[in-house]
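Recap from last week: sequence in, structure out.
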Amino acid sequence: MRRLAERLDRWTSQIKLQPKLLITFYFVSFVPLFTTAAFFYFAMTESLEEEVGTSLVLTTRQVDERLSSFVEETTHLAKILHFDPNVQELLGWEDPSDLSVIPSLQELRRSLEPIVYHRAHLRSIYVINDYGRYIYSGKNMGKLDYDFEGDPWYKEVVKDKDFRLLAVHPQQYVLGAPVVSFAGRLYHNLDFKQRGTLLFDFDPEYFSSMIDSIRVGKTGSFFMVSPEGQPVIQMEEKNHGLIEQLMKLSILEKKNGYLLTQIEGVQTLVGFSTSRTTGWKIIGVVPFQEVSGKIEAVRYGVVIFSLIATLFILLFSKYLSRAITRPMFQLQRYMGRVEKGDFSTRVPTDRGDEFGMLTNRFNHMLERLQQLKEEVYLAEIRETKLQLLNRETELKALQMQINPHFLYNTLNTMKCVGEVYDVKEVSEMSEGLAEMFRYSIDSDKYKLLSEELDHVKAYLQIIQVRYPERIQCHFDIPQDLKGVSVLKLILQPLVENAIEHGLIPKSEQGGIWISAKRTKDGMSLLVRDNGVGIPEHRLMEIKQKLSGEAGDEDQNLLSGHIGLHNVQQRLLLNYGSNGKLTVESDQVQGTRVEIHIPLDKESEGDYRV
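Predicted structure tokens:
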């Protein structure tokens, strides 16, 4: 726990006290609140979902009870007909020329008629023997000598033997209307062998009425599905796709149950049960929203309670955090006065808690600081007197030093003497040296690029006297960059290096090219010569020194190129990492030294770091 507390303290060390208190209050309040609300929400929702689902399953069982009663009644009727003597007579009728059975067949037809006409949902009854002879009674005229053996559903009846209810199927022996059949095999009493089939055809609407009378929700519906997944009764075409989706649910492999699932993007409750007499699945489907009134009420109740509790926690936490931190902010305000030099202020306090103890210690500290301030003031007076005496001594020493302006005026005098006596070289060198000296002793740290170029030209004027017609200098400076402010004395050392180490050793005419261009984030200055270049190993050593990779033992690494090092150090001191100096050299083409400096546009025509 101690390590955890230390980690929390490190993680929150940059957060102010009031937000930290708010976070703490929110954590200890919202975590229990939302945990309890979520548990209650999900527990009640699950309980109500179970209640609604169970209710839907019970509803499907009501349909099953109606269906089972119907099947039991029809089965009982089938057993009565099975043992009827006239039916047994028909089962044994093999020879159509045997007219002795005619009275029994007529009697059988008369006994079937009341059964059909007293049941509105029963369309017809067929008693069929295995020799192709049959007797029927129905509300509509049927075909004579119809071959039932050609119908696939009839073959299934013969194969299964037991009486069972068939799903809706087409038929061609009476008007071609679909029917729901109850059929099974008949046994002859003499040899107990199968000799025929008993067939009841019912109106499918009768089975539809079993489920249409039951309503769940506003749009809920029920379906009867055979074990093979086929609808038992006729339905709208759109429901066939729904049946296919339902039959893919693995839960339908059980005898009964319910589940919530997404059907066409709608959360739907599906309940089902299996008929004990037919094996059909009776499925109820209803959008969950239509039957979840209590669940919605519980949800809204939990949400409203959580919102009210959240609002209360937010307001109370904010008020409490302010009450706790108010003495600290008061102490902070008085500290601000002390920072401005008011050591006479005192923090009023009437508290007995930790903030009161801290305030008392702060007041004692101010008293001690006031005493120290008076002692320091007296000490400063004594030191000021000593400084005045030292300044007087320094002034006398400075008066004995040579005034730099005296040297500058002397150089101008030499220039005039050279002009009077027509010594052109003395005049030009004195003029160039005077210009360079004047530029150097100027106290400005930054100069316009045009002024820096004038300084270079003054230096070149002296060099031309030493090496007439040997060194040519070319300038390529855009007009809009001449007004840019740059660090003073960064070009002349590079030009001097190019002449001393590149062109003079060449022993023939050479040139220097000075150019400038604007870059994406600043300006680039390039000094290029076509001198002898720098040997490859020497160039690598220079680059290591400029990048700071060389050690202290390599202090003489840049001897002969000290100007590069000085320029690079001044770039770093004034421009930081944005000021860069790069060197590239080839012993055939010469040396390139490029400076990159950043530009900060403060006003039209003036750029300064």
